User: Which sequence fits this backbone?
């Protein structure tokens, strides 16, 4: 393994390699659109076993596209969906290596919710509509177009693509893939292009991701639902008690977590970091409009970005039990379940957080059953240093503005796996915009982001070449 902190040149190793880039980007658009249309047409929905054949077709199409761009490609089987690996050896053994990660599986799409056919690329001026166009097929093909330029111009850097097909279901087999591949995945830096800018006019680089703990709390107080007129007042109501348990865990007004110990290891976000969060173009009114929110716990910009980027959360996603049909059926349910998640931040151990919540609840309510569903740590990557600085320079070159460094409120399991096993810095160079509709109906990508992204990736790759002797 090469050193984690291998020095990156302060300037491009060969600035002349960028001389043809503008013309290349303009000429590459038809090929980019053809490739994107091919991938969008395949409904690789990893969450639905009925689409298993489509996942295989996605892998085969992706491998063919990598080869078409001049890279070697192989499809690596796992216990679940395969992983597609593409490689260009521009620097040879021991030379600088960058690994670019994307995922090609997608969320389901209900055609009734779409203005266009979700699994057919629709080109509307600069926009590309279709499921997976921005999450994450468009960014993947943007990076591929940059790699094709590197191949054509014989840029002295090794490029490896890792395209996963299970990200949308939590990457259950990605760690086993990384372990099995071992030294074949040795790299100096990992670039992930699966994140979103805060505002369309201000580029952003994510250097942190929140982790996730999901759990269910179940109360069973009988063997069957009963008539409230006969048992109400005497019978325990598990829905009512679960509401009380939740209120003991989190203040509903402020969102402050009340479980002792959970927030003890949270590192204070610095004023410098908060300044950058705000400088990302974050606007409270736009944030509310984008997410259909009519009110917030706070409307102070610094407080809102602190909460969504750098603080832990406790959220209730569902209360299941009793009668949920039209009207009121007067039963006391025998059983009820609360579905809960905590987004955690760097320095919090997800299993320790779960244990604190479980112990807090069961100490007060011994017959409550608290079960862990998933646990994922947070990620905190470099905000400064050679690889982060190179990323910032590449973004500024491509989009004309110095990027803001922000943290993302969501989680990407593959990032944690690569950080742990590849022992290389992970840089998140996302290209998607808030308006692109991650996971939403009418998801789209656009040529402006793709064109800028090609320039960004080429500039970044060129910075990683070995300095002339």
Assistant:
């Amino acid at each position: 393994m090469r050193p984690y902190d291998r020095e990156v040149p302060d300037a491009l190793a060969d600035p002349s390699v960028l001389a043809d880039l503008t013309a290349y980007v303009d000429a590459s658009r038809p090929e980019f659109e053809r490739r994107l249309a091919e991938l969008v047409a395949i409904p690789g929905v990893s969450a639905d076993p009925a689409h298993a054949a489509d996942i295989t077709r996605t892998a085969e199409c992706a491998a063919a596209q990598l080869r078409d761009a001049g890279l070697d490609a192989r499809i690596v089987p796992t216990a679940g969906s395969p992983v597609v690996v593409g490689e260009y050896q521009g620097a040879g053994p021991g030379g600088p290596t960058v690994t670019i990660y994307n995922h090609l599986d997608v969320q389901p799409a209900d055609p009734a919710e779409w203005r266009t056919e979700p699994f057919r690329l629709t080109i509307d001026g600069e926009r590309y509509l279709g499921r997976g166009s921005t999450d994450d097929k468009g960014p993947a093909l943007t990076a591929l177009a940059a790699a094709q330029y590197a191949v054509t111009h014989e840029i002295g850097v090794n490029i490896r693509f890792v395209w996963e097909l299970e990200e949308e279901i939590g990457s259950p087999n990605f760690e086993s893939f990384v372990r099995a591949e071992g030294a074949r995945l040795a790299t100096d830096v990992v670039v992930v292009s699966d994140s979103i800018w805060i505002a369309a006019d201000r580029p952003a680089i994510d250097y942190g991701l929140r982790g996730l703990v999901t759990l269910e709390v179940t109360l069973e107080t009988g063997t069957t639902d009963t008539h409230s007129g006969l048992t109400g007042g005497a019978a325990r109501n598990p829905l009512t008690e679960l509401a009380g348990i939740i209120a003991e865990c989190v203040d509903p007004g402020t969102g402050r977590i009340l479980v002792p110990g959970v927030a003890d290891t949270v590192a204070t976000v610095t004023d410098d970091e908060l300044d950058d969060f705000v400088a990302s173009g974050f606007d409270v009114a736009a944030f509310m409009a984008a997410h259909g929110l009519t009110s917030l716990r706070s409307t102070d910009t610094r407080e809102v970005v602190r909460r969504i980027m750098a603080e832990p959360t406790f959220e209730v996603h569902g209360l299941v039990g009793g009668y949920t049909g039209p009207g009121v059926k007067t039963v006391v349910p025998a059983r009820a379940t609360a579905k809960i998640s905590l987004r955690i931040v760097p320095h919090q151990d997800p299993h320790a957080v779960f244990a604190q919540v479980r112990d807090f609840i069961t100490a007060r309510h011994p017959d409550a059953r608290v079960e862990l569903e998933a646990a994922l740590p947070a990620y905190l990557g470099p905000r400064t240093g050679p690889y982060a600085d190179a990323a910032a320079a590449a973004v500024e070159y491509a989009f004309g503005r110095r990027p803001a460094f922000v943290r993302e409120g969501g989680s990407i399991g593959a990032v944690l796996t690569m950080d742990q096993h590849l022992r290389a810095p992970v840089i998140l160079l996302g290209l998607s915009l808030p308006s692109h509709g991650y996971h939403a109906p009418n998801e789209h990508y656009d040529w402006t982001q793709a064109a800028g992204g090609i320039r960004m990736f080429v500039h970044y790759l060129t910075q990683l070449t070995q300095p002339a002797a």
